[in-house]
Amino acid sequence: MSGTGASAFNPRVILGLVLFGAVAFLATLYFIGSGQTGKSGVAEADVTNRGLNGYAALYRMLERQGHDVSQSRSRKQYLTDGLLILTPSANAEADDIRKVIEDRRYIGPTVLIIPKWVAIDAPRTLPGRKPDWVMLGGSFTPEWASELGDDLSLETKIEPVEKGTARWSGLGKSGALPSPEYVQAFTQGRIVGLAEDAQGRNLVGYMDDGGCYPVLDQAAGLAAIPPDDCTEDRWNVMVVAEPDLMNNYGLADRNRALFAAQVVNLAREGMDLPIVFDTTLAGAGGTQNLLTLAFTPPFLAATLCLLIAMLIVGWRAFRRFGPPMAEGRAIAFGKRQLVANAAGFTIRSRRLHLLTAPYAALVARRLAAVLGLRSADPVAIDAAVARRAPDAPVYSQLAARLSQARGPSEILRAAHALKSLERTIAP
Question: Where does the DUF4350 domain start and stop, copy by copy (predicted)?
Answer without folding.
Answer: 49-263
